[in-house]
Amino acid sequence: MSTRRWVTAVWAGLCLAGIAATSALNAGPYQDNPESPTEEPVPTGTYVVDCKAIADDIEQARAEAEQKRQEALTPSATPTYQGRATVKAVLVPEECADELENRGLKTR
């Protein structure tokens, strides 16, 4: 088989694999409902959200940040660059809103 034919065969195989992968991804874990095309797809799989673990992680990160801030404010600490700020955004599922509010972690 010549190099040109081999390259063409490999290219065609990759194209077919891409089409198959796209088809599989579009089929996804959603239920198709042909009667109501305007509705959002509904996921069929279930997932478990561990709200306590998420809240624990947020509390731990805030405690570490506060500890570092306190260490930087102590007079015996070595001078550090004072113009530095760190921001961390955490996306939390709505199911965890009550847990975060109960612990005082909800800011909005």
3D architecture notes:
This protein is mostly helical and 108 residues long. It is 50% helix and 4% strand. A two-stranded antiparallel sheet has the order 1-2. It comes from Streptomyces yanii. This is Secreted protein. Residues 1-27 form the signal peptide.
**What is the total tally of β strands?**
2
Strand fraction equals under 5%
Largest sheet, strands/sense/barrel: 2 strands, antiparallel
Number of helices: 3
Mean pLDDT: 76
Protein name: Secreted protein
Signal peptide: 1-27
Organism: Streptomyces yanii
Keywords: Signal
Question: Could you give the topology of this structure?
Answer:
Elements: H1 3-27, E1 30-31, E2 42-43, H2 51-73, H3 97-102
Antiparallel strand pairs: 1-2
Highlighted features:
50% helix; two-stranded antiparallel ribbon; mainly alpha; elongated; 108 residues
Short description:
Helices cover 50% and strands 4% of the residues.
